[in-house]
Amino acid sequence: AAWLAGGVAGGVLGSLRASSFDTASGNTEAAATAARLGLAAATTLDTRDYLTARTVLGRLAPGSLVRLAPQRQDAPPTSPALAAIARLAADRGLVVLCEGDVRGYGPTFQGRRATVVFLDAHFYHLGDMVALAEDEPGFCFSTRCLNGPDSITTLCREIGPERVLFGSRAGFHEGASALAVLRGAGLDEAAYGLVAGGNLDRLLAGAR
Length: 208
Hints:
The chain has helices at about 1-5, 15-20, 25-35, 50-60, 80-90, 100-110, 125-135, 150-160, 175-185, 190-205; strands at about 10-15, 40, 45, 65-70, 95-100, 115-120, 140, 165.
């Protein structure tokens, strides 16, 4: 309710359990909870288990949300399994939510015409984000770690507000602080609407 009052429309729910130790039960719980709350569910993959991930990817409809946590799962950017998962996700037209250092995991998705939202887009890597975005129109970035001065404003100016999505980091941070950062970014009404929900709606449209 607090996020809705701040103009945030909709959201995506993932499972920490699924990314940490049990993808099956975590994804089942996330799907059920998301349905109850009226949110979209992201299917988390284990990037260390390519065979299972390949099977799951084959079952997902185009436009579905897939969450990857390679850094948490100790899968380096050079992992052959991660590269194969990135290729399959792009080929199937899935929307990838990717955790981890954008400088390392961004290049994994380059040249694949992939749609990726990088979740851990830190404000001190703004230059790297802009450089990646210049060559990859499907690369988008979450605001959840953009808490530096003018970082959201700068990113929106450089790559357009159409490629920046509000991130609350719910479960780790208190939601009001994330909203305060977004509200303080000085975005006009149109740009704020895109970041706060419009861009997510556009990405989710392919799964409807």
